[in-house]
Design goal:
7 strands; single chain; alpha/beta; Rossmann fold; 38% helix; seven-stranded mixed beta sheet
């Protein structure tokens, strides 16, 4: 069984979805949830489900001697970013080659890069008059949102859709598809 670490910064609906999904699978488990924010609601969700949680600040994230032993002592096989906002340092990318993946709330390469997260993405999609949006799962590289695309799922938009409606449509895709994409990747490890 492979062991996943899910990195989060916010409410953690995708993290919780992953925990539930892998509770019923023999291939992997969410063994650790890591957050850069002690007040992230994702930690509450994970603790309620019995998953170990660790909070690391920006300075700690930059230190290989802090993060690598934390992951190594828990035998982590793969890191999944589910709304984790800080950039992943190069040492971590090197330690987990093609085993760190990110969920992005748009159809990359559109609406990616620095500052493009959460509601900012959905506002940009609305402002651009896009007729569709979606989610992208991609490998993490030193280039923000620049890694190879693993999977994309799209949904149609109406001109009348508000930013909140766009966000809701995209989030439904995440809930429906993200765990299965991670499972497919785990099966290849």
């Amino acid at each position: 069984m492979k062991r996943l670490a899910v990195f989060v910064s916010g409410s953690g609906s995708n993290c919780e979805n992953l925990i539930h999904y892998f509770c019923n699978r023999d291939c992997a488990e969410v063994a650790l949830v890591v957050s850069n924010r002690a007040d992230a609601y994702a930690l509450t969700r994970a603790r309620r489900l019995g998953v170990e949680c660790v909070v690391i600040d920006k300075q700690q994230l930059a230190q290989p001697e802090v993060v690598l032993p934390m992951l190594g002592s828990r035998a982590i096989d793969m890191v999944v970013l589910a709304g984790f906002l800080p950039l992943i340092p190069n040492y971590l990318i090197d330690a987990f080659p093609r085993r760190i993946v990110n969920l992005h709330p748009a159809l990359l390469p559109k609406f990616g890069g620095k500052g493009m997260w959460g509601h900012h993405v959905h506002e940009a999609v609305k402002a651009a008059g896009e007729t569709e949006t979606g989610m992208t799962v991609h490998y993490v590289t030193p280039v923000c949102d620049g890694g190879d695309i693993i999977a994309q799922f799209s949904t149609q938009l109406l001109p009348s859709d508000t930013v909140d409606e766009i966000a809701e449509k995209e989030h439904e895709l995440e809930m429906a598809h993200f765990p299965a994409v991670i499972e497919q990747l785990v099966m290849q490890l």
